[in-house]
Amino acid sequence: MKKIVDDERLIYKVCSLYYQDDMNQQEVGDFLGVSRSSVLRMLQKGKDLGIVTIELHNPRFYDYGDMEKTLERAYGLKDVLIVENSVLDTRQEAASYIFGTTSDYLDSFFKDGDRIGVAMGNTLNNVVSTNKTYEKNKDLLFVALEGSISRITVDGTDVQGNELARKFAEKFGGTYTQFLSPAVFSDWKVLEFFMKEKAVNYILDEFKNLNVVVVGIGVPDGTEHTLDKAGYITSSERRTLVEYGAVGDMCLQFYDKDGNTEPFRFFNDRVAAMRLEDIRKVPNKIGIAGRERKVEAVIGAINGGYINILITDTECAQKLIERAEKKEA
After folding, report:
1. Fewer CB atoms near the end CB (10 Å): N or C, the chain?
2. pTM (2 d.p.)
3. Which CATH architecture best describes the domain 60-328?
């Protein structure tokens, strides 16, 4: 005797109600007088028999699956998200694409119970300033990765870690912890002494509990560097760092193409921030950087183990792939 779930006419009817009329499985079952489990089996049979075919149309920002996989394999990354940027896009348009997509990615990435370190800078400020809104039903804690007690703003905007930790909690839900310290000290010995104070060193315990960090990746040879504008470094100091081989900076600390920080200790050791060597230990390290000028900085960050998840644009991604292929040749 033919089973009800094998009746092709009924299978078609079930599939039509579910896919075309937008009924849920229980509603279809109630309408046809069959059980929900029978509906589920008939929907599967509809696919098996070719009654239902599903075609996916990728939106603009998710067209780069092959490139993403190539970068993951070439650089040993856990995940890569590539956002389109066209030569026809204005700089503002290209930026809005990557910042908006990053915001969506972070909302889906953050999980209940996450403890998330947030770095300073324009990149993260732009990400958290998008007009996107999300449900705030997760237990999240955002922690400033650098000291940032200062009156200084960048182009009238506070892009320091304490303020960004607050903005992240406001956007994605949860609470935040500030790092109550200046960002850069005049002498490493002063910083070392300062960090022994109980009023400050609570932040070291917070750093140990992080399972996610979110950072922008800076380039020290830019003509308008955020660290210059924030008053954390002089143009002369920055030029010296570049002469010593610095290709990138993260959390106010500089590194070379291999991710080595040793040549830059004269500056890095004066920075009140989570050390890059400690960031290596965090399971999920999300770095955000676009455009060709960031390629060297991204490679240095990967080589140093400071990021294992990359959000970038097509321009930077293509150059990273070319660099990997050249190395293999």
Report:
1. N
2. 0.77
3. 3-Layer(aba) Sandwich (3.40)
